[in-house]
């Protein structure tokens, strides 16, 4: 319970900041297909922190006190929905990065915010459809099926990312370095744009590794839940809790990957907090001015009254 509570207190503000940074976009740097997909993933992680984790805290609290547990289905549905959306978002991010690195000119012409927006909607529609299967089977069986699919997809994405994306990325970086040495301004601008895409791709690859490291132990726990015939009910509950912790840890760590790897994210966060602090200062200053004016007015009235009394006495 305490672990879920700690994760919730970090996951919610972390992903909320990512959502605000992309939506407010103080420096107009985030109107890109990749960033829209990051926003979609942050919304998924925010649902994990705002629904799945609080319900997990409630369930563990009531379990510890031997109380009835209402709305278990809601926690499990939110959990599977967000897991599916995360997996599909990662798959779409893989396609996005592959096109951006291997076909940069085609990518800039054809991959628009509108098309990525449709892809984001499709992610949620498919996630809802897949999660609805959960209502026709028990938690352990569905978790077993999902865990196998998730692990297979994650391993495939990692292999594909390394073989097709990372090698192309390495080659394009070397070519850009040679090109900039004696190139025109237009060629240098193209090289800078490609270097920016390369940096986004490296961030994406860290996200893929974080996803794999979260889901690999999760799948092990799910296998133990299904195949361990000598495990007690208490041990099965421990496996259930650990597989949940590993999955929600991925939602916790993603915002830190963006902030650590992407300088424009850090710059936007600083700008937003500066604006918020300036707004709070501006609200305080008028109140102080009113108080000072009222005090000066009071002193003036006292002074006038004293002056009038001296005149009457004379």
UniProtKB/TrEMBL annotation:
Coiled-coil stretches: none
Membrane-spanning intervals of the chain: 6-24, 36-61, 73-95, 116-136, 142-163, 204-224, 244-260
Keyword check for Transmembrane: yes
Pfam families the record matches: 7tm_1
Domain of life the protein comes from: Eukaryota
GO cellular component: plasma membrane
Domain G-protein coupled receptors family 1 profile: 14-258
Stored InterPro entries: GPCR_Rhodpsn, GPCR_Rhodpsn_7TM
Compositionally biased intervals (Basic and acidic residues): 297-314
Entry's family note: Belongs to the G-protein coupled receptor 1 family.
PANTHER family for this protein: ADENOSINE RECEPTOR, ISOFORM A, OLFACTORY RECEPTOR AND ADENOSINE RECEPTOR
Protein name: Adenosine receptor A1-like
């Amino acid at each position: 319970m305490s672990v879920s509570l700690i994760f919730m207190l970090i996951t919610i503000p972390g992903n909320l900041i990512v959502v605000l940074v992309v939506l407010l976009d103080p420096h107009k740097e985030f109107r890109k297909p990749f960033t829209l997909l990051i926003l979609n993933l942050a919304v998924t992680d925010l649902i994990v922190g705002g629904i799945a984790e609080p319900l997990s805290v409630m369930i563990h609290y009531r379990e510890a006190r031997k109380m009835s547990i209402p709305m278990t289905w809601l926690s499990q549905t939110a959990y599977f929905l967000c897991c599916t959306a995360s997996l599909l978002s990662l798959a779409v991010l893989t396609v996005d990065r592959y096109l951006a690195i291997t076909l940069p000119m085609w990518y800039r012409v054809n991959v628009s915010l509108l098309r990525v927006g449709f892809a984001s909607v499709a992610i949620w529609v498919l996630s809802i459809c897949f999660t609805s299967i959960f209502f026709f089977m028990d938690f352990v069986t569905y978790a077993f099926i999902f865990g196998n699919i998730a692990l297979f997809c994650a391993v495939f994405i990692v292999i594909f990312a390394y073989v097709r994306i990372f090698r192309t990325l390495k080659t394009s970086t070397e070519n850009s370095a040679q090109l900039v040495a004696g190139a025109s301004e237009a060629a240098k601008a193209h090289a800078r744009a490609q270097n920016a895409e390369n940096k986004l791709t490296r961030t994406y690859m860290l996200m893929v590794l974080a996803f794999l490291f979260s889901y690999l132990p999760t799948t092990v726990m799910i296998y133990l839940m299904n195949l361990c015939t000598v495990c007690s009910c208490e041990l099965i509950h421990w496996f259930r809790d650990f597989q949940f912790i590993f999955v929600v840890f991925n939602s916790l760590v993603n915002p830190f990957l963006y902030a650590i790897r992407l300088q424009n994210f850090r710059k936007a966060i600083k700008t937003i907090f500066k604006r918020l602090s300036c707004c709070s200062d501006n609200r305080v200053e008028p109140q102080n001015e009113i108080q000072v004016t009222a005090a000066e007015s009071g002193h003036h009235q006292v002074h006038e009254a004293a002056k009038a009394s001296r005149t009457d006495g004379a």
